[in-house]
Amino acid sequence: MAQNSLIDLHCHSTASDGALSPTEVVNFACERGLKVLALTDHDSVSGVAEATAAAQGRLQLISGIEMSTVWRNFQIHVVGLFLDINHPLLQQSLEEQRLKRVERAEEIGRKLERLGFKDAYARTKAQAQPGASITRGNYARFIASTGVCRSSDEAFNKYLKRGRPAYVKTAWGSVERAVQTIRAAGGIAILAHPRRYQMTNTKLRELIAEFKQAGGEALEVASAQQRPCDRQYLAQLCQRFDLLASLGSDFHVQGAWRDLGFNLALPSDCTALWQSPLYAERFSIHAQFAQ
């Protein structure tokens, strides 16, 4: 039976497309026994202050982000941890991302209108946190709420993923720029869920090589709903490219298979971020208790 990790370095709140507020995410993490949590909303750090306040004296809250990028027509996500959320370069980049997200959300809304979802943009925006960018995750929950699909996952796969009728290609920045922005803000750059990009192993290795060359420091080796063989392969890639290992549930909404900390044990043949002499002091939890 899978055990819960004490660390989760990838999750979302209502500051992007998560279902729980930053405070509720922290409360849920505490209920599940986590000791270290990174809040990594999509192209947003607006929930970090609230989460940090809620975490005081309960767990270590790491300021994080998940930045959207494009690499050879693939949408790639880069997680940043331990950020100075007020750094000017980060704030400039996030404002650019916010404007792109507004344009994309409006275009997705128009496509869904043509597919029969009346007032899709307005209704999805009404369900989202005030001021938060509207993401595909928000639209997926809206579609599911209409009863057309049984779940937000089904809605995402049917309408919103690449190649589906409401997908909108977006001119995100490069992986290199995201890594440079994260590092400039004092952060650690991590390639998020590398096996979800539906690319060949050859392309994945090329992506990782370029990520490493840009200054990336870790791969997200353990994630939710992942085959054991994929986890082991990513651990091998960490060794091959001399990268550290991270883990994260990519939590959005409460549910058995993507709950915070669920089934995130790292293979023994990779070095976790908190085990590295470079970063161990940033983590409040001793390495031997991390999993």
UniProtKB/TrEMBL annotation:
Domain Polymerase/histidinol phosphatase N-terminal residues, every copy: 7-71
SMART domains in alphabetical order: POLIIIAc (SM00481)
GO molecular function per UniProt: 5'-3' DNA exonuclease activity; 5'-3' RNA exonuclease activity
One of the Pfam families matching this protein, by short name: PHP
Highest taxon of source: Bacteria
PANTHER family given in the database record: EXONUCLEASE, POLYMERASE_HISTIDINOL PHOSPHATASE N-TERMINAL DOMAIN-CONTAINING PROTEIN
Name this polypeptide is given: PHP domain-containing protein
Organism in which the protein naturally occurs: Candidatus Anaerobiospirillum merdipullorum
